[in-house]
Amino acid sequence: MSAAAALLLIALAVPAGPERLAILPAVVEGPAGEASARAVFDAVAEGVGIRLGLDVIGYDELFLQGATSRATEAARCGSDQACVARILQDVGADLGLRAIVNFALEPPLVTVAVVAADGRRTRSPTLAEAGPRAPWDQVFVEATRATLDELGFVPAGRLEVTTEPAGAPVMVDGAPPDASGGWRLRPGRHVVRGEGPGGKAEVEAVVLAHRTTRVALPLPTARVADSGGVLASPWFWAGVGVVVLGAATAAVVAADPFARDPAPGCFCVTTQGGPCTPCP
Question: Are strands 19-28 and 54-56 parallel, antiparallel or unpaired?
Fold first, then answer.
């Protein structure tokens, strides 16, 4: 195989961006408890947290697209993975996480299963019992974390940077921000560098798993270019009795500018060898 062909295969194998995950909640009612689809969604989303290569489709986005009925349809799919895959394709998801809590059983049974939109089973379902020492929502959190860890979705944290002055370009570990304006990073220390009108600056940020870290990066203010400063001001020279007579030759008269008669003495400064204007 040629090097070009090998590179093409690698490019095709690497996803263009994070995979989109749709959480499909379902609740089986019964005497052992109760929960809403939104509560199940939130518990699973907490378990997903922040991960490299994975974006969770928001609850509002899903349900505004009619995901309430689709979630019901997904529950009716049972073990038919092709049925679930069609629902995932409808909502533009790469992966689906089916989250079912069954209150018809005592204790309630929690099920977490991940299905790919291409119809293949990504992982066998995780079954766990809820109870007084393990509330159903916490069981969802732990089961979701274990499932995604096993699938290789690395826990990450999010970093957001503000600058003073605002709007300055910033890089973290040499990388620009993502489309949302921040960085999704592995837990640990990261170097934040920015450049403002007056120069560059950097700070170190510590990112924690499943947390959003916010740091401020103060940048040097703009340096005022020295165009001669106070010595270039005509008011300064007038105050000490100096008059500039020309660009090449300058005659400086030390006298009181308010006196009626010229001062008794003077001195002359020349540049570039020019002649000195006689004193009055």
Answer: parallel
- pLDDT tens track for 143-155: 999 999 999 999 9
CATH of domain 16-151: 3.40.50.10070
Residue of 141, 120, 128 whose CA lies nearest to 47: 141
Q: Which helix (H) or strand (E) holds 26?
A: strand 19-28
Domain ranges of the chain: 16-151, 157-218, 229-270
Taking every pair of Cα atoms in the chain, the longest distance, rounded to a whole number of angstroms, is 115
Q: Cβ atoms within 10 A of the Cβ of 100, count?
A: 20
Of the candidates 113, 135, 138, 137, the residue with the CA atom closest to the CA atom of residue 126 = 113
pTM score, whole prediction: 0.69
Residues 118, 172 contacting (CB under 8 angstroms): no
Residue of 208, 174, 179 lying closest to 192 (CA atoms): 174
Q: Supply φ then ψ for residue 13, to 5 degrees.
A: -80, -25
